[in-house]
Amino acid sequence: MRGGGTDNLVSDERKPIVLVVDDHRFSRTVLSRILDAADYRVEVAKSAQEALERVRHYEPDAFILDTEMPGMDGIELCWRLREQARFRITPILVCTANEDRNLLRSAFTAGCDDFLVKPLEPLLVVARLGGLIKKSDYYKQLERIRADLARYVSPRIRNVIESRSKGQSASSPPQQREVCVLFSDIRGFTALTQCIEPTELFRAVSQHLGAQVECVYAHHGYVDKFGGDGVMAIFDGAEMACDACRCALDIMDRVSALPPLIDGVPVPIGVGIHAGPVVIGNIGSGDHLDYTAIGETVNVAARLCGHAHPMDVIVSHAVHETVGSAAELAFGKGETAAIRGLITPVTLYHLRRRGAVREECTAE
Q1: By C-alpha distance, which of 308, 306, 331 is closest to 321?
Q2: Helical residues (DSSP H) of the chain, grouped into ranges
Q3: Which of 8, 158, 322, 355 is at a distance of 20 to 30 A from 65, taking alpha carbons?
Q4: Nearest-CA neighbor of 269 among 178, 351, 170, 162?
Q5: Could you give the CA distance from residue 340 to residue 361 in angstroms, rounded to a whole number?
Q6: What are the extents of the domains in the chain?
Q7: Nearest to residue 203, comparing CAs of 187, 192, 216, 218?
């Protein structure tokens, strides 16, 4: 929101700041009076070099530049300003004493948004400047909204959506792909909710999920969704199984290092990992879509997670075979287990770091 009457540069209610750059005192005075009457805060610079020095210390909301100044003219100054990321969308108007087409073409090529012809018409100055500032404000507001929304969508999914919005329909058909799916879950979460204040529980769970998300991205995966007290993450590519296993072990390390929730007891995390085909695409209606992966592979990974003991990582036979003899990964002896929801028993393996397994064997 703009307008108001305070000079506080960080206030949302401050006057918009316009930097007028013109070597003629009369032109600076005329523009200052026009803009001041329209409730703008006016700053002036007598040269392009002075303007560049001044913007090192603050960011005007708009510029009005004279095209003809000794040394660096307004068009070159426009180039210099547009080279700075912070002035990429800041409104820039140029003032000219004539409407020479080549001059105007050069000004627009440099990045100016509009032009004013001297002698200046106050109504035209205020209308053109106000329209450009309003457009700039709308764009900044959209950028803030986009940044906030990005925190609720994984970078991978956001890139897919953005690429499709440029040339493809958001309702493009789903794709079948080979991926590795990781599920994490807090064991005994329902019991914890009865022992901890809701606000404290929410804070602690958020902290734990944040640590898991960092591990997922560090190992080239992406978070498909949160499941209340756990995450569903997807890994793809040639190293997807190894990436998922390393991620799971790092999650265990990170979670173990976090403060306990109650009575010195760490949060008991269980993790399940399975690899196989999934179908990835949009699910839902036109009003609400979820870009996600579904299929038996997802279901099996979720069931393995539910079968894991506290601080335990269980992987399927498919993951075990794919990982092979990765140097830092080791597995317990394969065991056959009946998993809820699956018709036939499956072979599963408990994942550990190789050094940790040797220590366990020595202790025994």
Answers
A1: 331
A2: 25-37, 48-54, 74-82, 101-110, 122-150, 155-167, 189-193, 198-218, 240-257, 296-307, 317-323, 354-363
A3: 8
A4: 351
A5: 31
A6: 17-150, 170-363
A7: 192
Question: Residue 213 above 80 pLDDT?
Answer: yes
The secondary structure of residue 13, as a DSSP letter, is: T
For 170-363, CATH number? Answer: 3.30.70.1230
275 and 297 Cβ atoms separated by less than 8 Å: yes
The domain 17-150 is placed in CATH, from the list 3.40.50.2300, 3.30.43.10, 3.10.20.740, 3.40.50.2000, at: 3.40.50.2300
- Classified as helix, coil or strand, 276 is strand
CB neighbour class for 287 (10 Å; exposed up to 12, middle 13-18, buried from 19):
exposed
Is the pLDDT assigned to residue 53 strictly greater than 60? yes
Decide if 160 contacts 168 (C-beta within 8 A): no
11: Cα within 13 Å, side-chain hemisphere: 11
The first and second tokens of residue 193, run together, are: 């909710």
Q: In which band, very low, low, confident or very high, does the pLDDT at 86 lie, cut at 50, 70 and 90? A: very high
CB 331 within 8 A of CB 360: no
Q: For 23-72, give the secondary structure using H, E and C.
A: CCHHHHHHHHHHHHHCCCEEEEECCHHHHHHHCCCCCCCEEEEECCCCCC
Nearest to 35 by CA among 23, 48, 22, 47: 22
The residues that bridge with 235 in the sheet, in sequence order, are 180
pTM (two decimals): 0.67
